[in-house]
């Protein structure tokens, strides 16, 4: 999406997770998901990430919920919580996995989850609220710019059939650079 003056993030499907949409409609806090593995209000839950990726398709949601989504969610949080340090051996293994021709679904899922967690952390920082993965409030605009760039460049990488492995590694490197004080 393009720039939206006065808004922290562009109008993009991941800019406002489902729980926040429900909270905005009801005028109250987002409800906790009962029986969910992730019941924290301060992070984008796995089920919300997968719902966004499924784009309303129950069949696709079931396909995504086979355990791959949970593993990716865990790997992404592990990467984000150690920034600006990155385990480059693990990063290359992840990039190899996501860069394979047969990995379209995992590639999409990785970026849906990553961008969702980033969006939640950016909004939390701007509002001065806690988040499972947090960024300093004064750095929220820089992280929002990176979020926009990743969204745009992911679309370009897919449209132009660019090297996905290189794009994953570049994204991880930019996350690390942005996390440096």
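Sequence proposed for the structure above (181 residues):
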């Amino acid at each position: 999406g393009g720039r939206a003056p006065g808004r922290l993030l562009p109008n993009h499907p991941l800019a406002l997770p489902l729980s926040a949409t429900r909270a905005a409609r009801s005028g109250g806090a987002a409800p906790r998901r009962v029986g969910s593995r992730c019941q924290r209000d301060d992070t984008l839950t796995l089920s919300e990430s997968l719902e966004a990726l499924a784009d309303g398709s129950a069949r696709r949601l079931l396909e995504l919920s086979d355990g791959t989504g949970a593993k990716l969610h865990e790997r992404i949080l592990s990467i984000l919580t150690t920034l600006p340090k990155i385990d480059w051996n693990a990063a290359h293994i992840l990039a190899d996995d996501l860069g394979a021709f047969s990995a379209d679904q995992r590639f999409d899922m990785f970026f849906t989850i990553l961008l969702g967690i980033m969006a939640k952390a950016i909004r939390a920082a701007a509002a001065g609220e806690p988040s499972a993965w947090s960024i300093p409030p004064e750095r929220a605009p820089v992280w929002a710019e990176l979020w926009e760039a990743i969204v745009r460049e992911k679309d370009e990488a897919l449209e132009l059939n660019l090297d996905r492995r290189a794009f994953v590694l570049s994204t991880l490197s930019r996350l690390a650079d942005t996390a440096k004080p």
